[in-house]
Protein backbone atom coordinates (compact mmCIF):
# COMPACT_ATOMS: atom_id res chain seq x y z
CA UNK A 1 0.00 0.00 0.00
CA UNK A 2 1.09 3.56 -0.63
CA UNK A 3 0.78 6.28 1.98
CA UNK A 4 -1.96 7.89 -0.10
CA UNK A 5 -3.95 4.62 -0.04
CA UNK A 6 -3.44 4.25 3.71
CA UNK A 7 -4.64 7.80 4.36
CA UNK A 8 -7.69 7.39 2.10
CA UNK A 9 -8.63 4.14 3.86
CA UNK A 10 -8.27 5.57 7.38
CA UNK A 11 -10.34 8.63 6.47
CA UNK A 12 -13.37 6.32 6.42
CA UNK A 13 -12.99 5.99 10.19
CA UNK A 14 -11.10 9.07 11.42
CA UNK A 15 -11.10 12.80 10.85
CA UNK A 16 -8.16 15.25 10.78
CA UNK A 17 -5.45 12.72 9.95
CA UNK A 18 -2.03 14.38 9.89
CA UNK A 19 0.92 13.01 7.89
CA UNK A 20 4.51 14.00 8.64
CA UNK A 21 7.68 12.99 6.81
CA UNK A 22 8.32 11.04 3.61
CA UNK A 23 5.15 10.71 1.52
CA UNK A 24 6.49 8.31 -1.12
CA UNK A 25 7.02 5.30 1.15
CA UNK A 26 5.63 1.91 0.18
CA UNK A 27 4.20 -0.53 2.76
CA UNK A 28 4.70 -4.27 2.31
CA UNK A 29 4.16 -5.70 5.80
CA UNK A 30 3.10 -4.92 9.35
CA UNK A 31 5.39 -5.35 12.33
CA UNK A 32 6.14 -4.62 16.00
CA UNK A 33 7.73 -1.24 16.52
CA UNK A 34 10.82 -2.57 18.33
CA UNK A 35 11.68 -4.95 15.47
CA UNK A 36 10.18 -3.23 12.44
CA UNK A 37 12.17 -2.82 9.22
CA UNK A 38 11.96 -0.70 6.09
CA UNK A 39 8.68 -1.41 4.32
CA UNK A 40 6.86 -2.14 7.59
CA UNK A 41 3.83 -0.39 9.05
CA UNK A 42 3.70 -0.20 12.84
CA UNK A 43 2.03 1.81 15.60
CA UNK A 44 2.42 3.25 19.10
CA UNK A 45 -0.48 3.69 21.49
CA UNK A 46 0.99 2.64 24.85
CA UNK A 47 3.37 5.26 26.36
CA UNK A 48 5.74 2.42 27.36
CA UNK A 49 6.64 1.97 23.69
CA UNK A 50 7.18 5.62 22.82
CA UNK A 51 10.91 5.15 23.49
CA UNK A 52 11.10 3.15 20.22
CA UNK A 53 9.53 5.85 18.04
CA UNK A 54 12.69 7.80 17.19
CA UNK A 55 14.80 4.69 16.49
CA UNK A 56 12.36 2.43 14.64
CA UNK A 57 13.23 1.43 11.08
CA UNK A 58 9.54 1.15 10.09
CA UNK A 59 8.55 3.12 7.02
CA UNK A 60 5.20 4.25 8.49
CA UNK A 61 4.32 4.67 12.16
CA UNK A 62 0.83 5.41 13.50
CA UNK A 63 1.13 7.65 16.56
CA UNK A 64 -1.25 9.59 18.85
CA UNK A 65 -1.97 13.17 17.84
CA UNK A 66 -0.53 14.50 21.10
CA UNK A 67 2.87 12.81 20.65
CA UNK A 68 5.68 15.27 19.89
CA UNK A 69 8.18 14.13 17.24
CA UNK A 70 11.31 16.02 18.24
CA UNK A 71 13.79 14.16 16.02
CA UNK A 72 14.85 13.72 12.40
CA UNK A 73 12.15 11.89 10.46
CA UNK A 74 14.59 10.86 7.69
CA UNK A 75 12.89 8.62 5.11
CA UNK A 76 10.01 7.65 7.39
CA UNK A 77 6.39 8.78 7.56
CA UNK A 78 4.34 9.32 10.71
CA UNK A 79 0.55 9.35 10.73
CA UNK A 80 -1.06 11.18 13.63
CA UNK A 81 -4.51 9.84 14.42
CA UNK A 82 -6.90 9.86 17.37
CA UNK A 83 -6.52 6.14 18.14
CA UNK A 84 -3.42 4.51 16.61
CA UNK A 85 -4.31 1.09 17.99
CA UNK A 86 -7.70 0.77 16.31
CA UNK A 87 -6.30 2.41 13.16
CA UNK A 88 -3.63 -0.31 13.07
CA UNK A 89 -6.34 -2.96 13.52
CA UNK A 90 -8.26 -1.58 10.52
CA UNK A 91 -5.12 -1.65 8.37
CA UNK A 92 -4.14 -5.11 9.62
CA UNK A 93 -7.55 -6.42 8.54
CA UNK A 94 -7.16 -4.85 5.11
CA UNK A 95 -3.61 -6.08 4.53
CA UNK A 96 -4.03 -9.62 5.91
CA UNK A 97 -5.57 -12.26 3.63
CA UNK A 98 -8.42 -14.22 5.24
CA UNK A 99 -7.41 -17.55 6.79
CA UNK A 100 -9.06 -20.49 5.05
CA UNK A 101 -9.55 -23.39 7.46
CA UNK A 102 -11.19 -25.83 5.05
CA UNK A 103 -12.43 -25.64 1.46
CA UNK A 104 -16.03 -24.96 0.54
CA UNK A 105 -18.30 -28.00 0.66
CA UNK A 106 -18.91 -31.05 2.83
CA UNK A 107 -16.10 -33.52 3.50
CA UNK A 108 -16.83 -37.12 2.61
CA UNK A 109 -16.21 -38.32 6.19
CA UNK A 110 -18.71 -35.94 7.78
CA UNK A 111 -21.77 -37.56 9.36
CA UNK A 112 -24.79 -35.31 8.88
CA UNK A 113 -28.40 -36.20 9.68
CA UNK A 114 -30.85 -36.07 6.81
CA UNK A 115 -33.02 -33.71 8.88
CA UNK A 116 -30.35 -30.98 9.00
CA UNK A 117 -31.33 -27.72 7.29
CA UNK A 118 -28.15 -26.56 5.57
CA UNK A 119 -27.60 -23.05 4.22
CA UNK A 120 -25.68 -22.04 1.12
CA UNK A 121 -21.87 -21.89 0.83
CA UNK A 122 -21.31 -23.95 3.98
CA UNK A 123 -17.97 -25.66 4.69
CA UNK A 124 -17.95 -28.89 6.73
CA UNK A 125 -14.62 -30.49 7.67
CA UNK A 126 -13.53 -34.08 8.10
CA UNK A 127 -15.16 -36.24 10.79
CA UNK A 128 -17.77 -33.63 11.71
CA UNK A 129 -20.97 -34.94 13.29
CA UNK A 130 -24.24 -32.99 13.04
CA UNK A 131 -27.31 -34.53 14.71
CA UNK A 132 -31.01 -34.49 14.03
CA UNK A 133 -33.07 -31.35 13.41
CA UNK A 134 -30.11 -28.95 13.38
CA UNK A 135 -29.80 -25.80 11.31
CA UNK A 136 -26.57 -24.39 9.83
CA UNK A 137 -26.71 -20.90 8.33
CA UNK A 138 -25.27 -19.56 5.07
CA UNK A 139 -21.50 -19.20 4.87
CA UNK A 140 -20.76 -21.01 8.12
CA UNK A 141 -17.50 -22.99 8.47
CA UNK A 142 -17.38 -26.04 10.76
CA UNK A 143 -13.90 -27.40 11.39
CA UNK A 144 -12.76 -31.02 11.52
CA UNK A 145 -13.85 -33.16 14.43
CA UNK A 146 -16.57 -30.79 15.61
CA UNK A 147 -19.66 -32.38 17.17
CA UNK A 148 -23.08 -30.72 17.02
CA UNK A 149 -25.81 -32.64 18.81
CA UNK A 150 -29.55 -32.71 18.09
CA UNK A 151 -31.62 -29.56 17.76
CA UNK A 152 -28.76 -27.05 17.58
CA UNK A 153 -29.14 -23.87 15.53
CA UNK A 154 -25.98 -22.25 14.13
CA UNK A 155 -26.41 -18.90 12.40
CA UNK A 156 -24.85 -17.34 9.30
CA UNK A 157 -21.14 -16.78 8.68
CA UNK A 158 -20.01 -18.49 11.87
CA UNK A 159 -16.61 -20.16 12.21
CA UNK A 160 -16.22 -23.19 14.46
CA UNK A 161 -12.62 -24.35 14.69
CA UNK A 162 -11.69 -28.05 15.06
CA UNK A 163 -13.03 -30.17 17.91
CA UNK A 164 -15.71 -27.80 19.17
CA UNK A 165 -18.66 -29.49 20.91
CA UNK A 166 -22.16 -27.99 20.88
CA UNK A 167 -24.63 -29.92 23.04
CA UNK A 168 -28.26 -30.49 22.12
CA UNK A 169 -30.72 -27.62 21.85
CA UNK A 170 -28.23 -24.75 22.03
CA UNK A 171 -28.65 -21.70 19.79
CA UNK A 172 -25.89 -19.71 18.13
CA UNK A 173 -26.43 -16.41 16.33
CA UNK A 174 -24.62 -14.97 13.31
CA UNK A 175 -20.91 -14.20 12.82
CA UNK A 176 -19.79 -16.17 15.88
CA UNK A 177 -16.23 -17.52 16.23
CA UNK A 178 -15.54 -20.48 18.51
CA UNK A 179 -11.99 -21.79 18.89
CA UNK A 180 -10.79 -25.36 19.30
CA UNK A 181 -11.74 -27.52 22.24
CA UNK A 182 -14.56 -25.34 23.51
CA UNK A 183 -17.69 -26.93 24.96
CA UNK A 184 -21.09 -25.25 24.75
CA UNK A 185 -24.01 -26.69 26.70
CA UNK A 186 -22.48 -29.28 29.01
CA UNK A 187 -24.51 -29.95 32.15
CA UNK A 188 -24.37 -27.34 34.86
CA UNK A 189 -22.73 -28.37 38.14
CA UNK A 190 -25.95 -29.16 39.98
CA UNK A 191 -26.16 -31.83 42.68
CA UNK A 192 -28.58 -32.05 45.61
CA UNK A 193 -27.14 -33.44 48.89
CA UNK A 194 -28.93 -36.48 50.32
CA UNK A 195 -29.23 -37.45 54.01
CA UNK A 196 -26.63 -40.19 53.60
CA UNK A 197 -24.01 -37.69 52.42
CA UNK A 198 -24.18 -38.64 48.75
CA UNK A 199 -25.47 -36.41 45.96
CA UNK A 200 -28.39 -36.63 43.55
CA UNK A 201 -27.80 -35.11 40.11
CA UNK A 202 -30.20 -32.27 39.28
CA UNK A 203 -31.44 -32.59 35.67
CA UNK A 204 -30.08 -29.75 33.54
CA UNK A 205 -32.84 -29.16 31.01
CA UNK A 206 -32.07 -25.61 29.87
CA UNK A 207 -29.89 -24.48 26.96
CA UNK A 208 -27.14 -22.02 26.04
CA UNK A 209 -27.84 -19.02 23.80
CA UNK A 210 -24.89 -17.27 22.11
CA UNK A 211 -25.90 -14.02 20.42
CA UNK A 212 -24.40 -12.45 17.28
CA UNK A 213 -20.72 -11.49 16.91
CA UNK A 214 -19.48 -13.29 20.01
CA UNK A 215 -15.96 -14.75 19.99
CA UNK A 216 -15.10 -17.62 22.32
CA UNK A 217 -11.51 -18.74 22.88
CA UNK A 218 -10.05 -22.23 23.06
CA UNK A 219 -10.89 -24.77 25.76
CA UNK A 220 -13.55 -22.76 27.54
CA UNK A 221 -16.81 -24.14 28.90
CA UNK A 222 -20.25 -22.58 28.95
CA UNK A 223 -22.74 -24.76 30.84
CA UNK A 224 -26.39 -25.15 29.93
CA UNK A 225 -29.01 -23.74 32.29
CA UNK A 226 -30.73 -25.89 34.87
CA UNK A 227 -33.96 -24.25 33.68
CA UNK A 228 -34.18 -21.56 31.02
CA UNK A 229 -31.04 -20.21 29.35
CA UNK A 230 -27.39 -19.43 29.95
CA UNK A 231 -26.82 -16.37 27.74
CA UNK A 232 -23.80 -14.66 26.19
CA UNK A 233 -24.99 -11.36 24.77
CA UNK A 234 -24.08 -9.79 21.43
CA UNK A 235 -20.45 -8.84 20.88
CA UNK A 236 -19.02 -10.38 24.07
CA UNK A 237 -15.47 -11.77 23.85
CA UNK A 238 -14.34 -14.58 26.17
CA UNK A 239 -10.74 -15.77 26.33
CA UNK A 240 -9.30 -19.29 26.58
CA UNK A 241 -9.83 -21.46 29.66
CA UNK A 242 -12.82 -19.62 31.09
CA UNK A 243 -15.71 -21.31 32.91
CA UNK A 244 -19.23 -19.87 32.64
CA UNK A 245 -21.64 -21.82 34.82
CA UNK A 246 -25.35 -22.58 34.45
CA UNK A 247 -27.89 -19.75 34.14
CA UNK A 248 -25.25 -17.00 33.91
CA UNK A 249 -25.73 -13.94 31.70
CA UNK A 250 -22.67 -12.28 30.14
CA UNK A 251 -23.53 -8.79 28.90
CA UNK A 252 -23.12 -7.27 25.46
CA UNK A 253 -19.54 -6.27 24.52
CA UNK A 254 -18.17 -7.56 27.81
CA UNK A 255 -14.66 -9.04 27.65
CA UNK A 256 -13.41 -11.78 29.99
CA UNK A 257 -9.73 -12.77 30.09
CA UNK A 258 -8.24 -16.21 30.54
CA UNK A 259 -8.80 -18.45 33.57
CA UNK A 260 -11.72 -16.49 34.96
CA UNK A 261 -14.61 -18.40 36.49
CA UNK A 262 -18.24 -17.30 36.75
CA UNK A 263 -20.40 -19.27 39.19
CA UNK A 264 -24.03 -20.14 38.57
CA UNK A 265 -26.79 -17.56 38.05
CA UNK A 266 -24.38 -14.60 38.11
CA UNK A 267 -25.20 -11.72 35.78
CA UNK A 268 -22.39 -9.55 34.38
CA UNK A 269 -23.49 -6.31 32.71
CA UNK A 270 -22.69 -4.77 29.34
CA UNK A 271 -19.27 -3.36 28.45
CA UNK A 272 -17.51 -4.83 31.47
CA UNK A 273 -13.82 -5.77 31.45
CA UNK A 274 -12.83 -8.82 33.50
CA UNK A 275 -9.10 -9.52 33.88
CA UNK A 276 -7.44 -12.91 34.19
CA UNK A 277 -8.08 -15.38 37.02
CA UNK A 278 -11.06 -13.46 38.43
CA UNK A 279 -13.56 -15.58 40.35
CA UNK A 280 -17.23 -14.70 40.78
CA UNK A 281 -19.45 -16.35 43.39
CA UNK A 282 -22.94 -17.37 42.30
CA UNK A 283 -26.19 -15.40 42.30
CA UNK A 284 -24.67 -11.90 42.17
CA UNK A 285 -25.02 -9.03 39.72
CA UNK A 286 -22.36 -6.77 38.19
CA UNK A 287 -23.45 -3.44 36.72
CA UNK A 288 -22.62 -2.17 33.23
CA UNK A 289 -19.11 -0.86 32.59
CA UNK A 290 -17.46 -2.39 35.66
CA UNK A 291 -13.72 -3.19 35.39
CA UNK A 292 -12.52 -6.12 37.50
CA UNK A 293 -8.80 -6.38 38.28
CA UNK A 294 -6.79 -9.58 37.87
CA UNK A 295 -7.22 -12.34 40.48
CA UNK A 296 -10.12 -10.52 42.14
CA UNK A 297 -12.48 -12.58 44.23
CA UNK A 298 -15.94 -11.11 43.63
CA UNK A 299 -18.10 -12.20 46.55
CA UNK A 300 -20.99 -9.74 46.33
CA UNK A 301 -22.94 -7.66 43.83
CA UNK A 302 -21.57 -4.35 42.53
CA UNK A 303 -24.45 -2.26 41.22
CA UNK A 304 -22.69 1.07 40.59
CA UNK A 305 -21.99 1.47 36.88
CA UNK A 306 -18.50 2.14 35.60
CA UNK A 307 -16.55 1.47 38.77
CA UNK A 308 -13.27 -0.42 39.05
CA UNK A 309 -12.96 -3.19 41.60
CA UNK A 310 -10.13 -5.50 42.61
CA UNK A 311 -8.73 -7.57 45.45
CA UNK A 312 -9.94 -10.62 47.36
CA UNK A 313 -12.59 -10.04 48.48
CA UNK A 314 -13.11 -7.50 45.70
CA UNK A 315 -13.96 -3.93 46.62
CA UNK A 316 -13.84 -0.47 45.08
CA UNK A 317 -10.31 0.21 43.93
CA UNK A 318 -9.77 3.25 46.16
CA UNK A 319 -10.55 1.31 49.32
CA UNK A 320 -8.53 -1.65 48.15
CA UNK A 321 -5.49 0.55 47.44
CA UNK A 322 -5.71 2.03 50.94
CA UNK A 323 -5.60 -1.46 52.39
CA UNK A 324 -2.64 -2.37 50.18
CA UNK A 325 -0.79 0.71 51.44
CA UNK A 326 -1.45 -0.32 55.04
CA UNK A 327 -0.23 -3.85 54.36
CA UNK A 328 3.05 -2.49 53.01
CA UNK A 329 3.53 -0.60 56.26
CA UNK A 330 2.91 -3.61 58.53
CA UNK A 331 6.62 -4.44 59.14
CA UNK A 332 7.35 -0.84 60.14
CA UNK A 333 4.24 -0.71 62.33
CA UNK A 334 5.24 -3.98 64.00
CA UNK A 335 8.66 -2.57 64.85
CA UNK A 336 7.06 0.53 66.37
CA UNK A 337 4.67 -1.58 68.45
CA UNK A 338 7.55 -3.69 69.74
CA UNK A 339 9.51 -0.56 70.63
CA UNK A 340 6.49 0.90 72.47
CA UNK A 341 5.96 -2.37 74.34
CA UNK A 342 9.61 -2.34 75.41
CA UNK A 343 9.31 1.26 76.66
CA UNK A 344 6.08 0.40 78.54
CA UNK A 345 7.73 -2.61 80.15
CA UNK A 346 10.66 -0.46 81.25
CA UNK A 347 8.33 2.15 82.76
CA UNK A 348 6.39 -0.51 84.68
CA UNK A 349 9.56 -1.99 86.15
UniProtKB/TrEMBL annotation:
Biological process (GO), any one: lipid A biosynthetic process
CC terms in the record's Gene Ontology section: membrane
Pathway of action: Bacterial outer membrane biogenesis; LPS lipid A biosynthesis
GO-annotated molecular function: N-acyltransferase activity; UDP-3-O-[(3R)-3-hydroxyacyl]-glucosamine N-acyltransferase activity
Name of the top EC class for this enzyme: transferase
InterPro entries given in the database record: Hexapep (IPR001451), Hexapep_transf_CS (IPR018357), LpxD (IPR007691), Trimer_LpxA-like_sf (IPR011004), UDP_GlcNAc_AcTrfase_non-rep (IPR020573)
EC number(s) stated in the UniProt entry for this protein: 2.3.1.191
CDD domains to which the protein is assigned, alphabetical: LbH_LpxD
Residues of the UDP-3-O-[3-hydroxymyristoyl] glucosamine N-acyltransferase non-repeat region domain: 25-93
Keywords from the named record: Acyltransferase, Lipid A biosynthesis, Lipid biosynthesis, Lipid metabolism, Repeat, Transferase
Catalytic residues (UniProt): 246
Record field: catalytic activity: a UDP-3-O-[(3R)-3-hydroxyacyl]-alpha-D-glucosamine + a (3R)-hydroxyacyl-[ACP] = a UDP-2-N,3-O-bis[(3R)-3-hydroxyacyl]-alpha-D-glucosamine + holo-[ACP] + H(+)
Family per similarity comment: Belongs to the transferase hexapeptide repeat family. LpxD subfamily.
Function per UniProt: Catalyzes the N-acylation of UDP-3-O-acylglucosamine using 3-hydroxyacyl-ACP as the acyl donor. Is involved in the biosynthesis of lipid A, a phosphorylated glycolipid that anchors the lipopolysaccharide to the outer membrane of the cell.
Subunit and partners: Homotrimer.
PANTHER family membership: UDP-3-O-ACYLGLUCOSAMINE N-ACYLTRANSFERASE, UDP-3-O-ACYLGLUCOSAMINE N-ACYLTRANSFERASE 1, MITOCHONDRIAL-RELATED
Name of the molecule in the record: UDP-3-O-acylglucosamine N-acyltransferase
Organism: Chloroherpeton thalassium (strain ATCC 35110 / GB-78)
Lineage, top ranks: Bacteria, Pseudomonadati, Chlorobiota, Chlorobiia, Chlorobiales
